[in-house]
Amino acid sequence: MAVVPTREILDRAFAERYGVAAINIVNDLSMEAVLAAAVQERAPVIVQTSVKTVKSIGLDLLFAMWRELTAGIDVPVALHLDHCPEREVITDCLRKGWNSVLFDASRLPVQENQRQTVDVVKEAHALGAHVEGEIESITGVEDGVGSDEEAERQTLETALTFIRTTGVDVFAPAIGNAHGRYKAAPKLDAQRVTDIVEAEPIPIALHGGTGMSDEQFADLIARGCAKVNISTALKVTFMQSNLAYLRDAEQRDSWDPPSLFTHVRGDVLGMAAGFMRQFGSAGKAW
Ligand code: 13P
Fold first, then answer.
1. Could you give all domains of the chain from N- to C-terminal order, each with its CATH number?
2. Which residues of this UniProt protein bind Zn(2+) 2 (predicted)?
């Protein structure tokens, strides 16, 4: 397999009730390491980019990296734009070739969010791409997007109307999850996932994956969370791996950048592979 539509990856995961790791990368090294983990584990994977990453690296260079790094890859992979409130960036990424986008209009009133999401779905589907939608902001700031205030939860009826009216391919409900590090073990409303999926069988995106327990992952994936988002864990692994290596390099007074890159790549690969095994997607490549 190779680069495939996001929906193809998620529909299989949803039907078989395993979770696909959707991992936010920050540069070429982390993108390559996550893809290498997918190849090693024979796992489908979704590589995610925040708007901040798109802007810091540049759309063209980021997509060129993706094209080069996935050329000839033999596991199913897709490129996804994470939380994007900026309509122009959505269009730019869709036209460039991103496989899916999360149009994050959760700060708008639901009616307006719904109206704009209908448009985004039309635009994406015309290009063979897919759309994740949300009606409540996920708590926490992720790469400059979001708020630490917990958003008001909408009713089940509102969520179902949003899904049916917009035709989104993936839905991301707020269930007590949050981006960043949890200060206390999160209390998650798993029943909300079941309620949505029973009324409208659509793959659910689980945000705020970093810090959830094995039991929470297993339970939520069994209920229909086919896409499991991980960002903070990669950032922490990436930074701590650099720090550990550089501290040691300082001790040894030895300064060889490629050795640093190899070390960090190994740690990021190991982290990503661990999530793939944990979510049950290892061995599921077709
Ligand atoms: P974490 O940063 O908590 O892993 O959440 C990731 C996420 O949901 C990205 O949208």
1. 6-279 (3.20.20.70)
2. 104, 134
